[in-house]
Amino acid sequence: xxxxxxxxxxxxWVIIASERGRRPSDFETPxxxxxxxxxxxxxxxxxxxxxxxxxxxPAGGGWDLRVIPNKFPVLQVEGDLDRAGDGLYDxxxxxxxxxxxxxxPEHKIPLAHRSVERINQVxxxxxxxxxxxxxxxxxxxxxxxxNQGEAAGASLEHPHSQLIALPVxxxxxxxxxxxxxxxxxxxxxxxxxDILRQEMREGSRVVLENEEFVVISPYAARFPFETWILPxxxxxxxxxxxxxxxxxxxxxxxxxxxxxxxxxxxxxxxxMLHTSPLQEGPSSYYHWHIEVIPKLTKTxxxxxxxxxxxxxxxxxxxxxxxxxxxxxREF
Amino acid sequence: xxxxxxxxxxxxWVIIASERGRRPSDFETPxxxxxxxxxxxxxxxxxxxxxxxxxxxPAGGGWDLRVIPNKFPVLQVEGDLDRAGDGLYDxxxxxxxxxxxxxxPEHKIPLAHRSVERINQVxxxxxxxxxxxxxxxxxxxxxxxxNQGEAAGASLEHPHSQLIALPVxxxxxxxxxxxxxxxxxxxxxxxxxDILRQEMREGSRVVLENEEFVVISPYAARFPFETWILPxxxxxxxxxxxxxxxxxxxxxxxxxxxxxxxxxxxxxxxxMLHTSPLQEGPSSYYHWHIEVIPKLTKTxxxxxxxxxxxxxxxxxxxxxxxxxxxxxREF
Lengths: 331, 331
Description:
Two copies of one chain form a homodimer.
Chain A: E1 3-6, E2 13-16, E3 54-56, E4 65-69, E5 83-86, E6 89-93, E7 97-102, H1 116-134, E8 141-148, E9 160-166, H2 171-187, H3 191-202, E10 206-209, E11 213-216, E12 227-231, H4 243-264, E13 269-274, E14 289-294, H5 301-306, E15 309-311, H6 315-324
Antiparallel strand pairs in A: 1-2, 1-6, 3-4, 4-7, 5-6, 7-9, 8-9, 8-13, 10-11, 11-12, 12-14, 13-14
């Protein structure tokens, strides 16, 4: 049974996922998979995955998208949250949900190269699962994320995203919430809206925009070519995403990912969706967004020890490269 | 000129190291270096490095250890700190010192395989440089760290450590200081001393100890086989390290690194020394230590998005493997 444990100094939670059973020899690099290796996410192998919780099925049969519980979940969905002390320490049972969004039946078509309509199905699936998991009062946060490429932590090649529902609000989100609240107390304005206003006026870090979303490379980008996708108008939670916004998000996401592909030659990357905690109402101070981080540099002793990131590419330069990248058309 | 920029939401500083000039094509993986490639840290090539700031020279000539300014520093040592606003944002010029500790003349002998006496020279060098840089009142923190192995971020194979002196107290250290202060306000005890007491009594996470130091695998370890080296008796700063303690640290560090080598087959790793900020006197609440993290897993979207780490190896199991590892003798 996985377990949450809290570091008593920093209050950072970790998940001790012991049933994943990693002994020392398990950390050796496995040989690369053969091109014809078995893929549990490909059509025909549906019986090897847990039973799907959501799917998009076109009229002609088959499926366009499936959402399934992760076969090797880091958290377990059964039972209630049980907090306990252990001397000085605090722990909880590893309660949570861990799902995989299989973005399409085609093993070889990465998200950026699917049609806008198909990417919109993925965004809709994120939203459907988010809204559904919100009904479970044991959960306080749903983190939606994607790892593409082995260096970015993807263990299967078939294009997929993941979500993990958590009984706690994660530390990184708490930090953003605290900073946004501090700004709101001082200014009575949303700090993300303030950032967007300054960026739209200044222009040098605006990568893309459409009627609903803006992509910026943030002023204090941690990583080369880091970008954030933000709703243009104030919106604290992903929950309220409209059909229009969903389509606009699919379009800007495709445009951005194609540009990253073009400029960085198909880089490994992660993206993570940050939104208000589940059991909070709409707020004036927080603003949901997606952070996209290509995996181009290594996190080393200085970054781990300091929490300060060294970024060799100024966001203004990254913006220029991404803006100038040739894509067939805007989406 | 490098620049510090602060994320206005999380107050996280980043270093935009633009003179490192990374264009998109610079991120492609370079071919592995030939075995006979030029090494600036090897004897005979001293003229290719900046002028050394510290060295250990045995009576017979040559050198055992050199400390040099990094030829490609992420921060620049000249001038004064200049803080400025940029609309909503805050920045500072990239003031700091960035030095390299070349741990020995031998290109092929990693730290763990040097003699205790030679490892003690490395610890003494850390201490000498720490004390010297403390005299520079522009600096508020000196972070000493080591990256070993390419996956852990080492760009040169020749065994070396690094230090970066900073005009700010880094975020990760601030988090530890805040947590330690919170505990002290509540209990009037050092939280690290409390942890050590519980661990010594309980035993299942104590990897090693000698008269001055204890190695534990922390209760909420972020990474498989993560360990911390802590002074047994309360000590807030690395500054007060005695000759005895230095030798004891060299011994336990060798013992630990040899065991990691044995159990994990020469893993890439980082270690980072956390100590009280430079311009603070001794404190009752903070306790310096070294965090050692083998690089065995990939940090992916969930970790970046949540700040929650998934550790597949319980620290109790890591402890058991490390304790049972066969090393020739205790040091």
